[in-house]
Design goal:
14 helices, 5 strands
Length: 413
């Protein structure tokens, strides 16, 4: 990591704590300003239970005891005490479940992360693949057809797509292939290992499809445009002139274009966790962190609600930081016209080592972001000369501008 990038990372880390406190403060204020609370929920449940069993309703003393037990005070001092406990990851206890909030989150968080990572992996696999196909067939009917299909999927909200998948492919639907709820079938804990894995994959297919379908279009479009931009760069012309095959060039171009796409991976994961993951967990009853927070919001279980919000916000801020660092490390180099492979490890890639010209200092340039290379035209078989009269061509590569300058100094378009 360079010194400038390290300083930038430290500055961003210093902003994480105040940002986290501000987000939690706003949510705590909004939550406490809403009518109702955990005490009112507990009182309503006690009244319903008494009515169901024909017992008298709770007395005033019992209601007062419930308010003291479930009471959640607002204000600055309780909020600062909560932040002090959160600093050491003491998230309190759920008064409705009578269980540690940290233990509840520890059970649910792996499910949400696994679902998010699986969806992100599938999203990048399909999105990058579709983008490469579109770039290689740009302007054709295949390019237009893929774009229309992916934009149609992107226009559907995650919850509506999940309901459509349930109606079409879920058990009881038009084509009953996949289960509708949870992550395991009844009695699956006693099945052999391979059977349990297969059952888990069957339960994951519909949720993962619902979470990834909407994001494929944007990722494919980003990959397509990055590929087309790379194909127009001058190093591709230089590689062709040196006799590189189209497969070698495609691998090179795809690797460079993928740097910009992969730099958005942490932000994509955050978008899935905060968006589609919450909806999909509720629709498919998946026991993840999103479903836990949803039930805590309905029951006004403030310790669980604020604990899940704290964990989600912390993950989001750290993922944003990782995404920005990746983008500054690789994305800016590509957008500035700098070869992403150049000097990444303190050396020049092997295929460029013989392209640097000794007289590069004689080439007139107007930008400090230029790199100079040269190559000689291939000799014409059976003659003593070359196809370009043995004049080396200098390659000047600058931001947004690439030109070929012959040794005479005149510019060729």
């Amino acid at each position: 990591m360079s010194r400038g990038l390290g300083i930038y990372a430290l500055k961003r880390l210093a902003l994480v704590i105040p940002t986290l406190i501000a987000i939690l403060a706003i949510n705590v204020a909004v939550t406490h300003s809403a009518p109702g609370g955990p005490a009112e929920t507990a009182i309503a449940r006690a009244e319903q239970a008494a009515a169901a069993h024909g017992a008298p309703p709770p007395s005033a003393a019992e209601i007062a005891a419930l308010r003291r037990h479930y009471g959640e005070r607002g204000g600055i001092v309780p909020f600062l005490r909560r932040m002090g406990r959160y600093a050491v990851f003491d998230l309190g206890r759920s008064k409705l479940r009578d269980e540690s909030v940290a233990a509840l989150i520890a059970k649910r968080l792996p499910v949400s992360l696994a679902l998010g990572l699986a969806s992100t992996a599938l999203l990048y696999l399909l999105g990058i693949g579709a983008g490469i196909v579109q770039a290689m067939r740009a302007g054709t009917a295949l390019d237009a057809g893929l774009a229309v299909a992916m934009l149609t999927a992107a226009a559907l909200p995650a919850f509506l797509l999940a309901l459509l998948l349930i109606a079409c492919l879920g058990i009881g639907g038009a084509l009953p292939l996949f289960p509708l709820r949870g992550l395991a079938s009844p009695g699956a804990a006693h099945w052999p290992l391979l059977a349990r894995i297969a059952d888990l994959l069957r339960h994951l297919i519909l949720p993962v499809l619902a979470m990834t379908a909407g994001g494929i279009a944007s990722l494919a479009l980003l990959t397509r445009n990055a590929m087309l931009d790379e194909m127009g760069r001058l190093y591709v012309t230089a590689l062709r002139a040196r006799g590189a095959s189209e497969a070698q060039i495609l691998r090179r171009v795809a690797r460079h274009a993928a740097l910009l796409v992969v730099s958005t991976l942490p932000l994509t994961l955050v978008g899935i966790l905060f968006g589609a993951d919450l909806i999909v967990e509720i629709v498919f009853s998946i026991p993840g962190l999103g479903l836990l927070g949803f039930h805590a919001a309905l029951a006004r279980d403030y310790p669980v609600l604020f604990g899940t919000l704290y964990v989600y916000t912390l993950i989001a801020l750290l993922a944003h930081l990782a995404g920005d660092l990746l983008y500054r490390r690789y994305g800016d180099r590509r957008l500035m016209g700098i070869d992403p492979d150049e000097n990444l490890h303190g050396r020049t890639p092997p295929f460029r080592s013989d392209l640097h010209h000794r007289r590069a200092k004689d080439i007139p340039t107007t930008s400090g972001l230029c790199s100079h290379t040269s190559f000689e035209s291939p000799r014409t078989p059976g003659t003593g000369g070359t196809q370009a009269e043995n004049k080396p061509t200098h390659i000047v590569r600058a931001t947004g501008n690439s030109r070929a300058i012959p040794e005479t100094g005149t510019l060729e378009a």
